[in-house]
Specification:
Elements lengths: L2 H18 L1 E3 L2 H11 L1 H22 L4 E10 L5 E5 L10 E5 L4 E14 L1 H68 L5 H35 L8 E3 L3 H4 L12 H21 L5 E14 L14 E12 L7 H67 L5 H35 L4
Parallel strand pairs: 1-6
Antiparallel strand pairs: 2-5, 3-4, 5-7, 7-8
Helix pairs in contact: 2-4, 3-4, 4-5, 4-7, 4-9, 5-9, 7-8, 8-9
Length: 440
């Protein structure tokens, strides 16, 4: 292959790879991508579309029902009837055969029916509309749940990156400590217990390092799964942990989708209760019918048989009313049952409102606590590292024994773990605040 052609092919490949890569610069970018690709969100959107058609179907049931009919009958052999011959002037006691009717019969008609008053249909349509609105909030509630799952994996990825970076530094320090202690052991300055302790610290640091690096890969895969991506798809999280910690939680919280769902359940239960009561109200229908027939001896359904065969029309309209007099108590007890359901959902709604307000306040308090604790945990970790360096310098100067240096290093590892735990809690509280500030 010529060199120029090879370069062009490579550029095309690289360009294709760049376009295929998905880059996320923030958690909001991940959420936005999930709205179109997460299978759970897509599924509830499909259900919402179906509920929209169900609403239209329910309202269309209140429109007039119009039907047109048409028929063609070929009487291949007309029925023969015996009549007294005397009716036609013949001798008494004898009979004459006669066939009534025409061979061909054509008929057509149109009928229309409309419910003038049927509250059952009206309440069904209203409840279908309310169900559609509730499904919209169900989509919002599902998005909130998926957002929480995505935030968990996204922040866990950033947290593990931070842990891996710190583990890399810690392993380097632990290795230098081990090499120093081992060299001292070779000269007989320290004992085997000191070497074992230094080796133990190194092994623990390496264990933490391995865990962090593998958890980074696991979080990436979990994030891909939630985003509907394949394992081979390229994904980059172009964001640092520090930039993701920048948040002003003073912003107001939006309406909780779960609370809106409870409100719609209460409204639907109220509609069901009213619909049960409407079963005692009469229903009124209006009906119109037009029909016409034509009889002929010859097969000529359209040209009118040169005018010899005519059509015989008929039409009527009627007003029908149905009064529910006695239904063995079924409708009465159904109404009582629906009333209890409504009162129950109303009580649950009131309790949900109180609980939601308390939960929102706790989210703010937990975030403020986590932010304050994280600052202190980072200060303690940094002070512990400074103390370790100070102890190490004194050890190198021969002022303190090796045990003090190993203890200082172990303390630093413990405070580092406390910092990572505080950071993890901070990230959890952070995405709880972010989610409550989202408009679903």
């Amino acid at each position: 292959m010529p060199k120029r052609s090879f370069i062009i092919v490579m550029l095309l490949v690289l360009t294709s790879a760049v376009h295929a890569q998905v880059v996320f610069k923030s958690l909001e970018d991940v959420w936005h991508y999930a709205d179109s690709h997460n299978i759970t969100i897509r599924t509830v959107n499909f259900e919402l579309s179906k509920s929209g058609y169900a609403t239209k179907q329910a309202y269309s049931s209140m429109l007039p029902q119009v039907n047109a009919t048409g028929s063609y009958t070929d009487n291949i052999a007309l029925q023969t009837t015996l009549i007294p011959a005397s009716l036609a002037g013949g001798p008494a006691g004898t009979y004459k055969t006669l066939q009534f009717g025409q061979q061909f019969v054509y008929a057509g008609g149109i009928s229309a029916q409309m419910n003038v008053m049927n509250l059952q249909n009206w309440y069904n349509a209203r409840m279908a509309g309310q169900t559609e609105q509730m499904n919209k909030d169900s989509v919002a509630s599902t998005r909130k749940t998926v957002y929480q799952q995505l935030a968990t994996q996204y922040y866990n990825y950033l947290l593990m990156q931070e842990a891996a970076n710190m583990a890399d530094v810690t392993v380097s320090i632990a290795d230098s400590v081990y090499q120093s202690v081992n060299n001292k052991f070779q000269t007989g300055t320290v004992n085997q217990a000191n070497v074992d302790l230094a080796k133990l610290n190194l092994e623990q640091a390496q264990q933490t390092q391995i865990t962090a690096h593998y958890q980074i890969l696991t979080s990436r895969n979990n994030l891909k799964a939630l985003l509907g991506m394949a394992l081979a798809d390229s994904m980059e999280i172009a964001a640092g942990l520090k930039s993701n910690l920048e948040l002003q939680p003073q912003g107001g919280f939006t309406d909780d989708p779960s609370l809106r769902l409870a409100e719609w359940r209460t409204k639907i239960n109220l509609t069901q209760y009213r619909m049960a009561n409407s079963a005692f109200i009469p229903t009124i229908n209006i009906l119109y019918n037009y029909a016409t027939q034509r009889y002929d001896k010859t097969f000529e359904p359209f040209d009118g048989a040169n005018g010899v065969a005519g059509w015989f029309p008929s039409q009527y309209w009627s007003l029908q009313a149905s009064f529910p007099l006695f239904t063995s108590g079924n409708r009465y007890f159904q109404s009582k049952k629906n009333k209890v359901n409504y009162e129950e959902s109303l009580a649950q709604l009131e309790n949900a409102r109180k609980t939601s307000a308390i939960n929102d306040d706790n989210i703010r308090l937990n975030y403020q606590k986590a932010a304050a604790v994280l600052v202190k945990a980072e200060d303690v970790m940094n002070l512990s590292f400074d103390n370790y360096r100070h102890v190490s310098n004194r050890y190198e100067d021969g002022l303190i024994p090796i045990d003090d240096r190993l203890t200082a290093f172990k303390d630093y590892i413990n405070y580092q773990n406390q910092y990572l735990n505080s950071l993890s809690d901070m990230l959890v509280q952070l995405y709880q605040v972010k989610i409550r500030q989202q408009q679903f």
